[in-house]
Each structure stands twice: as structure tokens, then as C-alpha cells.
Amino acid sequence: MQLSPLSFFLFLLFSATTLTSTNGHNITHILAGHPDFSTFNHYLTLTHLAAEINSRTTITVCAVDNAAMNTLLSKHPSIATVKNVLSLHVLLDYFGAKKLHQIRDGSALAATMFQATGSAPGSSGFVNITDVKGGKVAFGPQDNDGTLDVYFVKPLQELPYNLSVIQISKVLPSEVAAAPTPEPSAMNITDIMSAHGCKVFADTLLANPEASKTYQENIEGGLTVFCPLDDPFKTFLPKFKNLTAAGKVSFLEFFGVPIYQSLSMLKSNNGVMNTLATDGANKFDFEVQNDGEEVTLKTRSVTAKITGTLIDEQPVAIYTLDKVLLPKELFKAAPRPAPAPAPAPEVAADAPKPGKHSKKQPVADAPSDSPADAPADDGVVADQTDDDNAGVRMGCGKLVAAGLSLCLGLLLL
Ligand SMILES: *[C@@H]1O[C@H](CO)[C@@H](O)[C@H](O)[C@H]1NC(C)=O
Ligand SMILES: *[C@@H]1O[C@H](CO)[C@@H](O)[C@H](O)[C@H]1NC(C)=O
Ligand SMILES: *[C@@H]1O[C@H](CO)[C@@H](O)[C@H](O)[C@H]1NC(C)=O
Ligand SMILES: *[C@@H]1O[C@H](CO)[C@@H](O)[C@H](O)[C@H]1NC(C)=O
Ligand SMILES: *[C@@H]1O[C@H](CO)[C@@H](O)[C@H](O)[C@H]1NC(C)=O
């Protein structure tokens, strides 16, 4: 059989899409084969738990059917609440049908993704699984007064020992997980930063009404903040004070991204990311680069590492950085060493559009009025990829608008 170029291209597209799931499983795809679970499946995607599930192994997803999901949704929970409830349905251990019916001593306690996110106080992130009379298997959240009234119904898919997908009779009743989360607009992001090691950055942001307003305006539609920890930011303050007024605003806005990004999304996307400061020719972007469990953000002169999560409540996520990231528009890099071989082109992260906010006048084209020659805090300067790959990445970035898989397919070609 002869493959036409088009079908060959489509084949590449298809392989590229399936390749992106690192452990070979795709929960969205698995549940798509079970129409009774379409609501559960839809919300796994909306809450970004699907990506989290695909990035892990040795887990069990306790799915509920559309009727059970409707009971949960009839209370009109926020998306952050739905995320908490559903993350309680992802057990961090493998329970196939066989194992469920042969639990040692008839009872086990399973940690869940809810517990792993840190939003679950005490034992509320654990699920009790007990073999009860008549060969039934009962489930209950540990914080539910010992009531076990949710039952195993049937296995949906088993990929031993990576992923087991089972049906349980209804949504696990947890008051803690189902508690309303604050409206995003009521969230005070500077308070959250101040309380968790980013007080200097938060105070600097509060002292700058224009940048503060930009952050505030983007909360509702999705906002990810990367705040430098106090020690590095304190050291950096003299250089900040040297920036022009417009430079200060852009610099502060550079640490926010106008879309929600969970840590698993950051881990599965390498590429250029626009920021709240991105405005036409003033790119103010940085590159996300993953190395195993580590996520780093890079500009020409600095590579900063994400060291912690202060909050991850869709649509807002705030992470801490171990260094102050320096935008190349404001800080000139030291002379570059001899070019190293360019690394393989990376797939661009879904590059967000510039934040919607009233724009100040453009910042002067790099550095005459800025502390340009200040070396990066860590003295590290070599960043080949920034320029060497720019062509490829930009080309890809444009294509992202047309479809990420198209771009993937082209890269494979
Ligand atoms: C998972 O499967 C769904 C539906 O089949 C597909 O749309 C999606 O792109 C897949 N995701 C990954 C990461 O392969
Ligand atoms: C699970 O709950 C049952 C009933 O409340 C209880 O008897 C059992 O000890 C619990 N199992 C574990 C492992 O905590
Ligand atoms: C389980 O995951 C590993 C990678 O972590 C993969 O090599 C293996 O094929 C997966 N097994 C199944 C049954 O999906
Ligand atoms: C957040 O709290 C600080 C004081 O802790 C206050 O100055 C600031 O105005 C608050 N921000 C919002 C948006 O309410
Ligand atoms: C601030 O700018 C002045 C004048 O350009 C310069 O002498 C000084 O070294 C700069 N300070 C820092 C901390 O960059």
C-alpha cells in the first residue's frame, strides 16, 4: 500500500500527539471509550488533573459515572473545588480488581492526589478501602467518621502496575475536599507571597500601583506568578531601584504569566513563555526548561529554579524562584563565550498572549538608561539557546496558534 504524503503527515501527527504522554497512558483517551464517564473525563481535563495522572505511574483513578457527577455539579462548585474533590479520587497506589478483593487484613489506607497537593489538612487526603461482607469493596475518605458507603463497581482499564481505572458507586463524600474555595477575585496574591518567603517581592509589587493593577486584572482569567525568594530579591533591590519608572513596571510584570499553569503543565512543556510585560516588540519572555523533576526558567543571563508552590488553586498558581530572573530587555548579558552546538529544538510551550492591561509607553529599547552591564547575580552568562534557537522556536511559536500538534508534526519531519 502506498502512503500519500498527506496520510504520512497525518500519521506523523498522530504519533507525535500520542508520544507526548510520557508513561504511555492517556486517561482522557481511556475514558473516551466509556461514554458513561464523559462528565468525569471532561472535568479531569478542565482541572488539569488529566496531565497530572498521565505524568505518574502506580496510581488508581476511581471514576464515577455521569449521574454521580451531576449530583456533585448540582451544588455549583467552583472549578478549584471540583479539582479538590476529583483529586481525592486519584489514589497514589495501584489497585487492580484482584488486589482490591485481596487487601491484606481486609483494610488499607491509600494516599491520594488531594493529600499530595498539600491542600488537605490532617488525614483528609486519605481514602480507606475495606473488604466488607459479601465480597464487596467499600471506600470512604478517612475524615468521614468511619462511614464507608461508596462501593467498587467494576474495573474499566488495567495497565499493571502503572494505572488502574475503576468505577466506584458515587463521589467520595469529603467535607474538606468539597469545601468552597475563595473566589479568585478575593484572593490577595501579595499576602500569599508575603506569608511564604516572597515578602520583599510582594512589598515591591504593592509599592508599584501600575504593576499591581496588571496582576490584579489578570487573576480572573488565569495567572501564574514566579516570585523570587527574599534573599535573592533583597540582594537585587539596588539594581531594581536603578531602573527607569517604565523599566520597574515591566520588570515586575515580567514575573507574571497571563495563564494558569499547574506544575505538571510546566513539567510537560518546554519552550518560550510570554509574560504580563510582553508588549509587541518588547518581548519580555523567558524559556521554560525541564530536567526530570526540576523546572527551570531561563533568560540569556540567568537560570532560575522553581523551588516551591505557594498556591495552586485554579485559575491562580504561585511558585517561588531561587534567583531573580533578568529580562534581556533590561539587562545586557556579559559577552558570550564561543558558541556551543545548538541543542535540539524544543517544542514551544503554549505561549500565552500578552496580558490584557492598559499599556504604558514602550520601554526604551534595551539598555542605555538601565543598569545594563550589571552581571547576573550568579555570574552565569552562557545561554546559547536564547539566540541560536530563536528562529526555530519562533517559527514554532507562530504555528502553535494554528495547532500544537501541527508544530510537533513539522518538527518530526
Ligand atoms: C489523550 O487523548 C485525547 C483523546 O483521545 C487526545 O485529544 C489528547 O491529545 C491525548 N493527550 C496526549 C497527551 O496524548
Ligand atoms: C477503615 O475503616 C473501617 C471502618 O470505619 C475501620 O474499621 C478500619 O480500621 C479502617 N482501616 C484503616 C486502615 O484505617
Ligand atoms: C508503564 O510505564 C512504563 C514507563 O514508566 C512503560 O515503559 C510501560 O510500557 C508502561 N506499562 C503499561 C502496561 O502501560
Ligand atoms: C492585599 O493585602 C495588602 C495588605 O496585606 C493590601 O495592602 C492590598 O491592598 C491587598 N490587595 C488587594 C487586591 O486587596
Ligand atoms: C546605578 O546606576 C549608577 C549610574 O548609572 C551606577 O553608577 C551604579 O553602579 C548603579 N547601581 C547598581 C546597583 O547597579
UniProtKB/TrEMBL annotation:
Q: Return the PROSITE patterns for the record.
A: FAS1
Q: How does it sit in the membrane?
A: Lipid-anchor; GPI-anchor
Q: Which residues form the signal peptide?
A: 1-24
Please list the residue ranges annotated as the FAS1 domain. Answer: 24-172
SUPFAM superfamilies from the UniProt entry: FAS1 domain (SSF82153)
GO BP annotations listed = root development; shoot system development
List all Low complexity biased stretches.
363-383
Any keyword Repeat?
yes
Query: Could you tell me which InterPro entries the record lists for this protein?
Result: FAS1_dom_sf, FAS1_domain, Plant_FLA
- State the gene name recorded for this protein: FLA1
State what protein this is by name. Answer: Fasciclin-like arabinogalactan protein 1
Q: What does this protein do?
A: May be a cell surface adhesion protein.
**PANTHER family given for it?**
FASCICLIN-LIKE ARABINOGALACTAN PROTEIN (PTHR32382), FASCICLIN-LIKE ARABINOGALACTAN PROTEIN 1 (PTHR32382:SF4)
- Give GO cellular component annotations, separated by semicolons: plasma membrane; side of membrane
Please give the family membership noted in the entry: Belongs to the fasciclin-like AGP family.
